[in-house]
Amino acid sequence: MNVSYYYHSSPALAHHSRLSCYAPITPTSLTLLHHHRPLSVSFFQNPNFLTGNTIFFKMQRFCSVSGKSKNKAMVERLQQFGVIVSSKVAEVMETVDRALFVPSGSAAPYDDSPVAIGYNATISAPHMHATCLQLLEENLQPGMHALDVGSGTGYLTACFALMVGPQGRAVGVEHIPELVSLAKENIQNSAAATLLKDGSLSVHAGDGREGWPEFAPYDAIHVGAAAPEIPQPLIDQLKPGGRMVIPVGNIFQDLKVVDKNPDGSISIRTETSVRYVPLTSREAQLRGY
């Protein structure tokens, strides 16, 4: 029997869960889902998964890597279930240790779950990082320019930097200055430290909705929060032939893939349904949106 697995989007169900794995959909539970009634099965344990997760995640049972887990084991598990299919993405995610980018003392830095990083923000789940890296892989070749909007603790910015290399440019923009400082500290302890030192990787405090014109145009743009609509400055800063990955929507959100064609026209498609925190002002974020 083919079994699908549902990644539930309800914080209430997640909060009361005691299992850190996906629960299977059965005919009974599928009927209950359609009627929005509470289920008797438990879903994801992390109460902070309000960002960076696909709502429907079609894979077999995917429990958290247990014990004294290593970053490599997390990546191998994502490969095992077909989340990571690119050898380059696997290499980069093995090289950048996720535990360096979550708050000290986090119980399970290698779980496939977002983690709260303070200031009403989170670091996305590993499967979303993998998804975005794969969608942008062709635009993260050595020498290219990449922009990470809402860079948080710096994880994906570090991954971008390793992919574009010292001849490229990876830029993180984050409107919480304390997170900018934390991202730099995290990166200094990571495999991307030399790229931060030589200046090919940089993290800046600013309103990511305005992009970062200094190093535009960008071959790749990633946005780590959901915008009600795609900000025009980000489209303007996307290079012809470039690609942007951005969650769009309010309550209901889709991960959009935005390609700028050689003639400057824009093509947009939907990759999957997601749940991210809002792309908003610093003040709105700090007061809880």
Can you offer a commentary on this structure?
The chain has an eight-stranded mixed beta sheet. Strands 1-2 form a two-stranded antiparallel ribbon. Residues 1-51 and 56-68 have low confidence and may be disordered. It has ten helices and twelve strands. Helix 3 (71-80) packs antiparallel against helix 4 (87-95). The chain has helices spanning 11-16, 27-34, 71-80, 87-95, 126-136, 155-164, 177-188, 193-198, 232-236, 282-286; strands at residues 5-6, 23-24, 53-54, 115-118, 121-123, 145-149, 169-174, 201-205, 218-223, 238-249, 253-260, 266-275. Helix content is 28%, strand content 22%. The relative contact order is 0.12.
Provide the β-strand percentage band. Answer: 15-25%
Which structural category fits the helices and strands? alpha/beta
How many extended strands?
A: 12
Numbering strands along the chain, what is their spatial order in the largest sheet? 3-12-11-10-9-6-7-8
In oligomeric terms, what are we looking at? single chain
Question: Strand-and-helix sequence, N→C?
Answer: EHEHEHHEEHEHEHHEEHEEEH
Quick synopsis:
The chain is α/β, with parallel strands linked by helices and 289 residues long.
Search tags:
289 residues; alpha/beta; eight-stranded mixed β-sheet; 12 strands
Task: Outline the secondary-structure elements.
Blueprint: E1 5-6, H1 11-16, E2 23-24, H2 27-34, E3 53-54, H3 71-80, H4 87-95, E4 115-118, E5 121-123, H5 126-136, E6 145-149, H6 155-164, E7 169-174, H7 177-188, H8 193-198, E8 201-205, E9 218-223, H9 232-236, E10 238-249, E11 253-260, E12 266-275, H10 282-286
Parallel strand pairs: 6-7, 6-9, 7-8, 9-10
Antiparallel strand pairs: 1-2, 3-12, 4-5, 10-11, 11-12
